[in-house]
Amino acid sequence: MSRRLLRAVTGVCALLLAVSAVGAGPAQAAGPMPFFQLPFPCGETWRLATYAGHDDYDIDMTFTGGGSNGRMILAAAGGTISAGWSSGGGNYAVIDHGGGWRTTYMHLLQPATRSSGWVDGGTPIGWVGSTGNSTGPHLHYEVTRDGGKTEAYFNGSPSGITSDGSASTGPIYVSGPVSPARNVTSANCNGGQQVYEAHSANGWRMLPVSGGYGPVTASATAAIQLNGVKILYSSKGGQIFEAASNAGWNNLYTGISGAQGTALAALNLNGEKLVYSVVGGYIHEASSNNGWRNLNTGIGGVSNSSIAVIGLNGVKYLYSIVGGYVHEAHSANGWRNLNTGVPGSGVAAITVGTTKILYVVNGGSVYEAASNAGWANNWTGISGVSSATIAAANLNGEKLIYTMAGGYVHEASSNNGWRNLNSGVTGSRTSVLTINGVKYLYSN
Length: 444
Ligand SMILES: [Zn+2]
Description:
Largest sheet: 9 strands, antiparallel
CATH superfamily of the largest domain: Fucose-specific lectin
Structural class: mainly beta
Strand content: over 45%
InterPro entries: Cell_wall_metabolism_enzyme, Dup_hybrid_motif, M23ase_b-sheet_dom
GO molecular function, one term: metalloendopeptidase activity
Radius of gyration: 24 Å
Organism: Catellatospora coxensis
Number of domains: 2
Distance between the termini: 43 Å
Number of strands: 41
Mean pLDDT: 90
Low-confidence stretches: 1-10, 15-27
Bound molecules: zinc ion
Signal peptide: 1-29
CATH topology of the largest domain: Neuraminidase
């Protein structure tokens, strides 16, 4: 195969010294090498290659499971990110990992998701594209040590992409065979787990939620329906993403960042999409109507493991855990956060008519409390569930509770006396929505 054809097929790039220089910076004694991971979601397999006339240690990465364009790029390790544009690298990002170590990512589809501040390893930083000097969608990846290019490692193993075989290019200036291409599967799994969708109409068969931008991975999810469209919000590395069933589950960054823990809730209020997360101990609200600006509600001191939201007569009700008790705040009284007196570590909320109903996990047992009974706390009989994970739904008056026990989602219904049945859906957390009588679970 001619090099021209090879380039057309795989998408590669020319020398990019200008961008590399951005990542060089002042030399400092190299500290221990960070434990780098492949900069793609957990489980994805990518082809690593170079070519004669490239640069030693430069790696061009293409997806083995289909097109590369638009696939999510993750930080290879934690560090301070910077980003910009150059004619060679197109949209690029550089992460300074400290100790003299940097990683560089080039040809991103759009500007990186952020251009400053700290990113954890596994944080989404952008999408694969073909901007700058590139013949097709791929990620150009480099590692520098004290400003000089060096061998890239992934999950503790060397990439093997060292030489471009050309004496005329750097940095090691040897002539010889081009390092052969090889496939590497990502173990970049800390930023979140694969999200699966299962629904009651097909026996809870689990299908991975995956779209044109790659698999949706998350540390927590929240799901709503809007005009029959299923919309999934996921948090990963502090960032919140939106994926919709009518857009092929393409996972889009909302711009909301700083989310902590697993507290995530969402609401469709008359067509306005609202997302709630915990930032610095305060519940923040972002709305699709204001471009997802993430505003502090002033509700503070809350646990970052669980929050819930419901809408009733146009009023938004938020439930959070403060000091081990569920608190309620609503938009009609300026978000004053009042103690319901219901103890718990995890909370879910539904409405039945105009009654607000809370489901709370406390000490592995699930309790139900209703606003029209003064939040009297009644044990459902459900026990042995994970401490902070609970979801609930009202399906035509049937109250449904979803909890985690033994790594499986369990379903209990008010119609069967809250018998807690194993759905067979695995995961560590779940969210739920209903459309046309079908129950949809999103587990991760
Ligand atoms: Zn390249």
